[in-house]
Amino acid sequence: MLLENEQATLDVGRKLGAKLRMGDKLALTGTLGAGKTTLARGILEGLGYGDEVPSPTFAIVQQYEPPETRIPVAHVDLYRIEDQEEIPELGLEEALEFGAMIVEWPDRMPDSFWHDALRIELEITGDGNRRLTWTAGDAWKDRWPLT
């Protein structure tokens, strides 16, 4: 899928957010500046969130809860995680029990964690657009790709 501008990235995110369910895992990969946080902002807007969505780079985990969002969701940025042994301290398994999770830099976690996730990769193309590619786990078979 080719995303020609920031608005297109937000639009895809909004559609995806409308389809998000409890227990869903979204893994967002791509280089710095590829649009991971922009896509996450769109997803949160699709869940009903209307305020500014900061990058969770420094907080690592940013929680969003009803009534601001349709379901609870954790927006996670693992960029600063250097050792996988730090991950259990973040409480991500508990977050999935009660909501969904959007994770930037998911390669910091074991690959087995993502077996049923929607994995999205954003790549900056030569003309400045973004190319979105994906791998969808079984949990997404009726919801992805978006229509």
Task: Please give a structural write-up.
- There is one protein chain.
- This protein is an alpha/beta fold.
- The protein has 3 helices and 7 strands, in the order E-H-E-H-E-E-H-E-E-E.
- The chain has a 7-stranded mixed beta sheet, with helices on both faces.
- Helix 1 packs across helix 2.
- The longest helix has 14 residues.
- The model has no long low-confidence stretch (mean pLDDT 93).
| Strand segment count | 7
- Class derived from helix and strand content: alpha/beta
Give the helices and strands as they follow along the chain: EHEHEEHEEE
Low-confidence stretches: none
Indicate the mean pLDDT.
Answer: 93
Helix content: 10-25%
**Backbone CA Rg:** 14 Å
Shape: globular
Largest sheet: 7 strands, mixed
> Hey, roughly how much beta strand do the residues contain?
15-25%
Number of helices: 3
**Biggest sheet, spatial arrangement of strands:** 1-7-6-2-5-4-3
- The end-to-end distance, rounded to whole angstroms, is 12 Å
